[in-house]
Design a protein that fits this description.
29% helix; Aminopeptidase
Length: 170
Amino acid sequence: MPLRVFIREPTREDCQELLSLRQRSKEFHFPWGFPSVNKQDCENYINRCQNENFQGLLICHFSNNEIIGVANLSQIFYGAFQNAYLSYYIDVNFAGQGLMSEGIRLAINYAFYTLGLHRVEANIQPENKKSINLVKRLGFTKEGFSRRYLKINEEWRDHERWALTVEDWV
């Protein structure tokens, strides 16, 4: 089956499209995450993508180049660890079509084969069943539970730790 999406790095010209995606998808992602919806935060995101320890990837639809989601690899470590933390979100208009699985698969390939990482981790709130099902489909293994791991919406939230190594990637 041919791919329906591709990934690319974000540019300043993407800010308006990213802001629109975030605005229309805000309720869809509640209470799991809260992507910012203002121009300064978007510009800060684009700037952060220039750092060595962060890689932002836009997931775009082949048919019209529209941004349908975002995958981020953060806290990229090299040396003995060779690890990154994966986060992602999709445009509500494209949810449930399998496009995010395709996009995250490309992001993982990028992490392992372009960045040369050994391991990718995703920390997910236990109630976020759709996200957990996504990483399960991609072959991630549940490695643990982190109490009060991240502060989201002014509350410390528990997270499950899911990981994938290059040896387990197919």
